Amino acid sequence: MKSNSFAMKEWHLEHSEKVIVRFVKGLSSDATAFERRNHKRYGSITQCVKQLDYDMKHGVDKGEVMDVLKKVKMLKKYAELRSDPEAVQRLTSLEELLSGTKKIEAELLWHNYAYRPKST
Question: CB of 49 within 8 A of CB of 97?
């Protein structure tokens, strides 16, 4: 018999996959007014990261979330998503945000901000 915490972790892992796919898929062209309103409210990258943080707070590791991102990039069942260039762009921006590569690149370019000319 599975323990309750293990079952909850599985649920949160599945939820994180659904959140990522929903964000990457974006809004369909024939969306209803209700879907457009909900997408405007909940479809941003910030809301996606908030939901993923919630899942990570409940037992999902950051590595597992990154594995889900890799799964979306590689599996055949998500090939339709990868054919849309806007979806690929959303996927890479989410991956960069979660992995922190932009932050690391900014820290490596510290010399751009280190020597500012004094204003007189």
Answer: yes
Q: In total, how many domains does the chain have? A: 1
- Asked if residue 83 is part of any domain, the answer here is yes
Residue 110 has phi, psi (to 5 degrees) of: -60, -30
Counting other chains too, the contacts that 52-57 makes at CB distance below 8 Å and 24 or more residues apart are 52/16, 52/19, 52/20, 52/98, 55/12, 55/13, 55/15, 55/16, 55/19
Residue 119 within a domain:
no
What does the alpha-carbon distance between residue 48 and residue 67 come to, in Å, rounded to a whole number? 16
Residue numbers of the domain that contains 39: 4-114
What are the pLDDT digits (tens) for 9-66? 999 999 999 999 999 999 988 999 999 999 988 889 999 999 999 999 998 999 999 9
